[in-house]
Fold this sequence. Notes:
By secondary structure, the chain is of the alpha+beta class. Helices cover about 20% and strands about 40% of the residues. The strands form four sheets. Strands 7, 8, 15, 16, 17, 18, 19, 20, 21 and 24 form a ten-stranded mixed beta sheet that branches. Strands 3-2-1-4-5-6 form a six-stranded antiparallel beta sheet.
Amino acid sequence: xxxxxxxxxxxxxxxxxxxxxxxxxxxxxxxxxxxxxxxxxxxxxxxxxxxxxxxxxxxxxxxxxxxxxxxxxxxxxxxxxxxxxxxxxxxxxxxxxxxxxxxxxxxxxxxxxxxxxxxxxxxxxxxxxxxxxxxxxxxxxxxxxxxxxxxxxxxxxxxxxxxxxxxxxxxxxxxxxxxxxxxxxxxxxxxxxxxxxxxxxxxxxxxxxxxxxxxxxxxxxxxxxxxxxxxxxxxxxxxxxxxxxxxxxxxxxxxxxxxxxxxxxxxxxxxxxxxxxxxxxxxxxxxxxxxxxxxxxxxxxxxxxxxxxxxxxxxxxxxxxxxxxxxxxxxxxxxxxxxxxxxxxxxxxxxxxxxxxxxxxxxxxxxxxxxxxxxxxxxxxxxxxxxxxxxxxxxxxxxxxxxxxxxxxxxxxxxxxxxxxxxxxxxxxxxxxxxxxxxxxxxxxxxxxxxxxxxxxxx
Length: 459
């Protein structure tokens, strides 16, 4: 059983069955159908399709003792079993230091139906042909081998809080990752595309294939890069991972556990005055667009950084109470490692203002400039200071005296606060980025960063 009616009945059952055993609950159910097409060596390898019905249960046992579990359910008996197991487990936990309550006001929610693809069922038949078109586009640009994956899904969710709020929503989404190669693996390129309406994204998916193929061909003959200080131009894929890290850490919980450099920066100028970043849960095509948060608080647009000044931390009910402010509608269940999950503030879609420069204009500099098109393994040496390193992958170029040369084997080793302050210009090519290096959907353009530190990558 995987219908929305089944989902709603299971959520209602979990609420009724648990209400006399605990102090309060928030239960969210979701029913979804997902698909994945994997490809390599210029052809499709495998297609998979699955259906799931999942319950997420947040229980307040007494006072500040809380617990959470996530369970795939198939019958009323498995729902009751899941409730009993969650209560038993939660009673063994210590009181939470980060819980002071949840939303109790019943509200009307904004209509976000524009983020749902009504023709998603037709896309299942169209998807293999579209994948082949993206592969062909990469080959036409000079790639020898093409690999990657397309994932897409549709789902509905329903939540019920014992404190009053309830609501339902539906969603669709997709993400395409294309990597193109020459005969040597060093000569590679990447193209990404993601969003909520796959049936209207044929052009952008094919463009991702073309970009991957073009970059792989341009990377042919890459030489060892020289460590040093350079102006660096990042395309949206890299900028989302490196620069998007900073506004994503405008979160009181992240500050409290020592994993943000923004703890004492509120009201300070941390970037140039042309940088504004908004947490926008309403943006069309946003992969995390939503009308309400996990607690049932209506979402809103929150300007985190305004003209370079840090203005706001995202909050849920608990952190807002702790810091004598108001919730921003950003409550979510987040994993904390080793299977532990907690009710915490979380960003939705990070949206940077678009710029006015073409990529070619960004690359016009009097200084030696490096253009980075992909990066992997963003690692922090010190979260509180923002010191990090990351490895550029796929095509990377040195632009010097008007000449563009492919290079390889360098690492960006710098500081997120310093780099954010050194943003020199923004491109006009803003796009949404979300993949395994970027957890939070981030709408961001290419950008130029002054005086970045590049070191030699280890072999």
